[in-house]
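Office hours follow-up: a student asked to see two folded examples consecutively, so here they are.
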Amino acid sequence: MPKLASYNGVIDSIENIKISPMSRAFLFSDSVYEVISFYKNEFIDFDRHLDRLKHSLYETKIECSIDECSAEIKKLLNESNLKNGYVYFQVSRGIDSIRSHLFDESECERFGFIEKFSFLNQSPLKVMLVDDIRWQRCDIKSTSLLGNVLQMNDAKGMNCNEIIMHKNGQLTEGGASNIFFVKNNEIFTPELSPNILPGITRHQVIEIIKEKEFDFVEGIFDVNDLKEASSIWFTSTTKGIIEVKEIVNLDTKINPKCELLRICKEAFASKYFS
């Protein structure tokens, strides 16, 4: 069956979607996006994803009806035959008559597609520690991802599946995920800042950690903190909770049988995928 897509509210096969080369998304990555998972035909934390999209639109001064976005995302799911997967949805500032860094008021451009995906039983990751070379507003979910792309592909050359980024030794996040680690039976994650995306799954996992009353700290952490970690894991919409098995350029003390990780993974799967 052809992959379904939506362009400004019109649903069609993705092969039939035509986007102007003068789209500011194409010319400048002047656009924001969300990836929203669904399981058994139900979106997971839909409202929180919409709130984050609204934040991204506000911070980038892109004018677009959040109600239209919501309706188009739901329409994609309703018109597909998929049970489990995710919707990618992107909003750009629109189409220019001439290429210019300056923008005028124009009609926003909305594009999305729906993808089948299995969220459970993903294999542990081999990762690489890299400098964070991205722009300074990573709290905005922008399609401007060249820094991520370059670093992820450098890691691919080392047979890695993901990266852990840092700015001058200070931990930020993964290439497409947030990071948690365990040390001395305490769970840690970098606190939110302009360098860190407020991940929806990050929020869900923090809720579980607090429900379980585990010792937990959000703060500023150094790369060296990972050396003593007994467990390191990522969270994201498509990864859920997935552990790190090795950092190729850092010696660690990772224990693949970390009890805190096991409990968090089981609670997460039970809450969102049962």
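And the second, which I mentioned at the end of office hours:
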Amino acid sequence: MGILEGKKAVILGASSGIGWAIAERFREQGAELIISARREGNLKKLSEKIGATAIRCDGRDHDDLKALADAAIEKWGRVDIAVNSAGIVRSQLIREMEPETLKEVADLQYFGFIYFMKHFGNAMAATGGSIVNITSATAIMVPTGLTPYSGPKAAINFVTKIAAREFGPDNIRVNAVAPSFVPTAMNSYGGGTPIDEARVELAEDNPTALAFIKNTPLERITTVDDCADVTLAVASDLFSNITGQVIPVDGGNHLLRLPGPESYPENMRVSGIQN
């Protein structure tokens, strides 16, 4: 029996990357799932692969997120676990900052995450549950060039703690899992080969990987499966007395420093990543 046997879980941002891997791991461990994202094609593919209910949702939209929570309650009568893994990456120096860059990221990764906590916290009020926000280890460091991305993530790390206090009396735990930059099929990590919608194979001389390994005490790259394993533990009853925590999943990279922007994959610097 898996550690999520009988649990009802919703995962937002499941159409690729970390969210996809979390959905796979939760299903392996017995959870019944609703998976959600904006990209319906990928959702359908994952739904058929693991046996989950797919619901399209825009993680920026207050009413869409309420409808997602309502759909879960209508289907199951309760929600035990809600994970928000929706994300977009933009890199820009403050001296060059464009208003649209900030708004694009904040709409999803600040406002959207608060709306998610609001609606799923309310949905769990009668029965308790676990909310997990996927944030970033870059919000624990002080990186240059990542204000549009790391700023909202840092804010959500803090709001996670506020939410843990506010929802605690209803037996709702709220935590954050904070990965380092993780190679996925969408960002290719500067030249990797996609394996599936979540994972990418890296060459031994991949420059982005080497830069992160150099600045990581465990001297290894964090994978989507590392993130899925930690999220599984945090969401489960194994962490039943843990709330308001931000848990880095980065091999200790946050203890040293993030490689400079010149080491980021090109599409992290310019076009970004969207789950």
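Two things to take away from it. The two ends are 30 Å apart (CA to CA). Helices lie at 17-28, 40-50, 62-76, 99-123, 147-167, 207-214, 224-235, 266-269.
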